[in-house]
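User: Show me a protein chain along with its predicted structure.
Assistant: Here is one chain, sequence first, then structure tokens.
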Amino acid sequence: MKLAIVHDWLNQRGGAEDVLEVLVDLYPNSPIYTSMYDKAEMPEAYRAWNIQTLSTDKLPFIYSHHQLYLALYPLIWGATKLDDYDVIVSNKSGFCHIIQHDENAVHICYCLTPTRYVWQIESYLEREGFGSILSLAVRPLIRLLRWVDYRGAQRVTHFIAISTAVQKRIKRYYRRESDIIFPPVNTSRFKPADSHDDYFLCVSRLIPYKRIDLAIQAATRIGAPLKIAGAGRALNRLKELAGPTVEFLGYVPDHQLNDLMARAKAFIFPGLEDFGIAPVQAQAAGRPVIAFGQGGALDTVIPGKTGELFYQQTVDSLAQAMLDFDASRYAVEDLRANAERFDQSVFEREISHYIEQALHAHRTQQPFVWKKNEGATSS
């Protein structure tokens, strides 16, 4: 089987790159096509990969200010054609899924989200710190980009969504059905502790849309100890909101993260995420989660069993959830079992099986209905 991997951009490391790394491990001889590759910002191991960049990689300031070229990506990706592959897997949050390919290839799109700056322009501009005037100015361009994005989505053979929330967006924006395979989480590196302390915990990049401000204000209001691990451009503003019970830890290395999570009273997850790996990591460390009840948290947190959900993204709603929280209600065995539904081994089994089934159906011209491997545990 000759397989190609398509990835929007390689200029920072996040959840999309976690998926990419597992795909490369599963299919190590496959080329990776991407719009840019900033070697200085990516792990050293990537340099051994067969990375093929598009012409956008040579644009000035593309690595540091790739948002300047957002309107160009659909032109470049749409003009790219991959021939002589059996399978193309696009790991997509932008426009990489609109590539062209010959009819012999089956194109499987692992959809992190439909293109956010096209379909959710207001929230995208807000999270990037742009104002409402720019939102009005770009609307004619957005209408064109939506048409291009939609048309490109119709060329995809099969969609896989990372969560129930993303599955609904694929149906709404692209009018396509999809299957769900949750992203890989390395749960084995997290271990429960014998006991826990009394602090709440947030682990996050400190940027506005993560809504760490809600956790800070809620903890300050009720006088609860809160530790915040992470760095980002919103740090100074968040410090201004914090009372004496809030502690900023800065960046916490991976080797220290397990102990920090395992000793927390609960993990606070106040933002709206497409999936959200951190709550799964906290449960793998044996700690329950208090999460905003939308997006990926609906898949990863079981109210009353592995944590609690608050349904209004306000200080009042979160503060009440923290006041009502009783850490003794949650069994470590339940928390670990739920986290393991999202383990990397489950992703590896499901994605490889999906690719095999889809390719077989394509070659035999049979209808494709995904049947999970026996023993797969995600839903």
